[in-house]
Amino acid sequence: MVRKVVVGHPYTRSIAASAHTTGSQSAAPLLDHLARLTRARSEAVLGKLGLRPRHLVCLTVLRDHGEVSQQDLASVLRMDRTNLVGLLNELEEQELIARRRSKEDRRRHVVGLTTAGERRLRKAEAALGDVEDEVLGALDADERATLYRLLRQATGSHMDCAAAVVEAQADGDDAC
Fold first, then answer.
1. What's the pLDDT tens digit per position in 72-124?
2. Quick check: 16 and 2 in contact, CB under 8 A?
3. Which of 19, 29, 113, 141 is the most exposed, having the fewest neighbouring CB atoms within 10 Å of its CB?
4. Measured between alpha carbons, how far is 174 from 169 in angstroms, rounded to an integer?
5. Is the dihedral of CA 96, 98, 99, 102 positive or negative?
6. What is 120-155 written as a DSSP string?
7. What's the rounded Cα separation, in Å, for the pair 102 and 168?
């Protein structure tokens, strides 16, 4: 006997509910797979530029927010300060960033992006654009725009928090 399934029928809703709970409609495994593909290809192209993902994030923060204290940078990147020093040493060795003493507080160091850092960041972003074209090649422009909008929506509060930390700490407050 063949059953006719009617949309909106309780039987249909239970199938949809069980599919969701069994993971067949779960986005998490697909997002994880897409992230792994993107990460592997991204790390390969960044490596050719002498960068790692954490370097790229740091350079991007410095470009987007300008000079910032090491302490504030550690907060934005959510890194332990000792790990940040190692990261900054690597970037400074390549002359991508510059550190100097703060004029307002000689105990603090201020970190800024150099011209070479800006150039390398532009090259890295172009290379990552090519990676994105490869990984998301099955999507047309409208689908990519929708995916981007949905990802921004899903991660919005997390991304807004990083910017809020920089602004709040500049004012002497705490954020997030």
1. 999 999 999 899 999 999 999 999 999 999 888 888 889 999 999 999 999 99
2. no
3. 141
4. 6
5. negative
6. HHHHHHHHHHHHHHHHTTTS-HHHHHHHHHHHHHHH
7. 18
